[in-house]
Amino acid sequence: MASSTPMSVSMSSGVGTDQPRVNRPSVAGGPRIGLIVLRCRRMVNVEPILTRFQTVFDGQRPCYLAQAPGRVNLIGEHTDYNDGFVLPVAIDRGVCVALRPTEDRLLTVHSTTYGQTAEMDLEEDPAAAAQSWANYVLGVAALLMRAGVRIGGAEMLIDSDLPPGGGLSSSAALEVATAKALLAAGGSFMPATEIAQMCREAEAEYAGSPCGIMDQYAALLAREHHALFLDCRTLRFDHVPFRLEDIRLAVVDTGLRHHVSGRGYEQRRALCERGVRCLRERGEPVQALRDATEDMLAAHGGDMPPEVADCCRHVIAENHRVLRAVEDLRGGAVHDFGRLMYDSHQSLRDCYRVSCEELDAVVGIASDTNGVYGARLTGAGFGGCAIVLLEDRAAESLRERIRSLYDNRFARPAGVFFTTAAGGATCVEL
Questions:
Q1: What are phi and psi of 102, to 5 degrees?
Q2: Assessment of whether the complete model's pTM goes beyond 0.70
Q3: What is the set of active-site residues?
Q4: Is 315 helix (H, G, I), strand (E, B) or coil?
Q5: Are residues 98 and 53 in contact, defined by beta-carbon separation less than 8 angstroms?
Q6: 283-301 residue pLDDT tens
Q7: Considering only CA atoms, which of 114, 150, 105 is closest in space to residue 135?
Q8: What is the Cα Rg of the chain in Å?
Q9: Domains with residue ranges and CATH for the chain
Q10: End-to-end CA distance of the chain, in Å?
Q11: Which end of the chain is more exposed for a tag (fewer CB within 10 A), N or C?
């Protein structure tokens, strides 16, 4: 049973976790750089990136390679913009940005995902780019300059193995990798927490996505084999061990795309804000739904439209689930953690109403698979991905059941991959 008092938690401030601005590759450089092991422990095959860069940019070679991971949120969905708690892990997939400084003031950026090139004149007032993906790069460059960072011209190639709109935070990974590359090229340093705030502002201002802070923090401050326990009000965080014996974390991509700037996301935020206003008008000392309690909702929920009360109910319960999940991870209580995942998905489906038939199908298939501890949607919902916590021996069984049951039902394949908790963003000089 959740507490009826507002929540507080003691965590590390994270001081001293920022990383050096540029790391040297752990293998010899030169014309035949092969595999680079970035701090996230992801093996990045540099040769294809170099080849693509040279193809796009007339035989030139990049000087810097920045990488930022995607993330899955283990639990704590739609709590970040309500000043609540979240528990993401970075994954071993992400976005790479290869960069070569130029002598002019022009950013020329090519995306291998979209096969498009965008140009941005740094001497002109920033304006929205014709390609939506380019606005994330434009926004980061503009806000770095606004912060007084000297940004020079550059040729940049963006390469990603994250599905756009898949709920794995591809946008935050792009922002963070862009910031890392531009800072390294300019010989500048910015603390990771400041980069995170700047990237969030860039996404809101230039991409029209009023996101919370979780994704950028996860991309920058994640630690290998740990989950990031983040208080989105104070921005204090802690690293919780996530290296369970014989346990796998699966990501199932429904193939249905969402976008954080869409109306469904905005509507849920607006409903939460209405709930806060209603509680404050009735004398409750709340600044955000983080401060609300079950007792408050029991007393005043009848004065709210049902959809507002339901959103409040989800956020209040989800914050408590995060706190319990942290204790379960620390204590190795995998079964209890899995039950919290199922409870979270049910709340997202029934109260917050951000699930969909495809996500529900994945969770249902997982729950009927022997060796699965828990499953839930991850990210904003409305499509995207679900995550499954399962025994190692159940991995192939889950993959086969998804292939036979999901693919046949929806007449399209679901992508399934297994991941580990990876480290945060880094940059190497080639």
A1: -125, 170
A2: yes
A3: 215
A4: helix
A5: yes
A6: 999 999 999 999 999 999 9
A7: 114
A8: 22
A9: 35-242+423-429 (3.30.230.10), 247-419 (3.30.70.890)
A10: 54
A11: N
Give the pLDDT score at 271.
98
Beta-carbon contacts of 336 under 8 Å, excluding residues fewer than 6 positions away, are 324, 328
Residue pair 176/423 in contact by the 8 Å Cβ criterion? no
Q: In 140-155, which positions are buried (b, 16+ CB within 10 angstroms) versus exposed (e)?
A: bbbbbeeeebebebbb
The b/e string for 284-301 (b: 16+ C-beta within 10 A; e otherwise) is bebebbbbbbbebbeebb
Which residues lie closer than 8 Å to 13 by C-beta, 6 or more apart?
236
Asked whether the predicted pLDDT for residue 2 surpasses 50, the reply is: no
The residue with greater pLDDT, 101 or 124, is: 101
* Range list of H helices, 3-71: 46-56
Decide if 317 contacts 231 (C-beta within 8 A). no
Least reliable range by pLDDT among 32-36, 237-241, 368-372, 375-379: 32-36
pLDDT at 123: 86
Indicate the angle between helix axes 263-281 and 306-331, nearest 10 degrees.
Answer: 100
Instruction: Please give the Cα distance from 217 to 159 (Å, whole number).
Output: 21
Cα separation, 315 vs 412, whole angstroms: 33
250 SS3 class: strand
Q: What is the pLDDT of residues 154-193, one digit of tens each?
A: 999 999 999 888 889 999 999 999 999 999 999 999 999 9
